Amino acid sequence: MRLLSISSGKVAPLFGNHHPDYKSVPSAIRKKTVSDLSNPTLIEITQLGVQGDEQADLSAHGGLEKAIYVYPFEHYSFWNNLLTRETKKSVNLQAGAIGENFTIEGLLETEIFVGDKLLIGKLEFSVVKLREPCFKFNAAMGYKGAVKAMLQSGFSGWYMRVNKAGFLVPGSKITVIPGTRQTSIAQQNQNLFTQHNQRDLWE
Fold first, then answer.
1. Is there a contact between 116 and 149 (Cβ–Cβ < 8 Å)?
2. 147 to 38, 121, 135, 182: CA distances (angstroms)
3. Around Cβ 81, how many Cβ atoms within 10 Å?
4. Across 112-191, where does the E strand assignment appear?
5. Among 21-25, 77-81, 139-143, 194-198, whose mean pLDDT is lowest?
6. Which parts of the chain fold into alpha helices (H)?
7. Whose CA is closest to 7, among 63, 45, 57?
8. Per-residue pLDDT averaged across 118-140, rounded?
């Protein structure tokens, strides 16, 4: 289990001027890699997340409890295949494209529980909850079924709180310290998917 890349983003209009109804909707979902295995630069991680990263809506993302969004690299083939098929265009998403700060490998939603601690390098994090996608994820992916696909697949990723801040570099080993292990991220995801189906909340 290791950290593959670190990404951050700036708040910008989610929709361009070509979409006048929504051009003023702000978002920082479009993250760019600032350090990866090919260019392993030390990046500062503060209590509020990756230094320089921004969030447009702190009720949904960011803050102390959702400072870092983690996403497994293993799911990228799913998204590339799905989006290529649905958009009729060749898609090859790069790390950060799902909106995550940390792209990791070797650890999935079925294996991580709310309250678990992750040691990455010399830093410590606590798992808080799954990522709940909204219409902004559909927009970023260019596919109106992206939210449903994320919940249906269970490939949601998760948010973490920063317990010990400092500097990180890609390639750092990840160690899981189990908590009470009552609710996995996968279980949270299934519950949310069921709620959406029952209430017909798909956007």
1. no
2. 31, 32, 7, 26
3. 11
4. 117-120, 123-130, 158-164, 166-168, 174-177
5. 21-25
6. 76-87, 135-141, 146-153, 185-199
7. 45
8. 93
Half-sphere exposure of 36 (CA within 13 A, CB side): 15
Per-residue tokens: 34: 């600032």
- Polymer length in residues for the chain: 203
CA–CA distance, 38 with 30 (Å, rounded to integer): 21
In the structure encoding, which two tokens stand for residue 186, read together?
């996968």
What is the Cα–Cα distance from 92 to 61, expressed in whole angstroms? Answer: 25
Query: Could you identify the residue written with the tokens 């040691």?
Result: 119
Residue 17 has pLDDT above 60, yes or no: no
Q: What is the pTM of this model?
A: 0.91
Specify whether the CB–CB gap between 127 and 185 falls below 8 A: yes
Please answer whether residues 99 and 14 qualify as being in contact, where contact means their C-beta atoms are separated by less than 8 angstroms: no
Chain centre to alpha carbon of residue 154: 13
Q: What tokens does 12 get?
A: 């910008």
Q: What sign results for the dihedral spanned by CA atoms 47, 31, 106, 190? A: positive
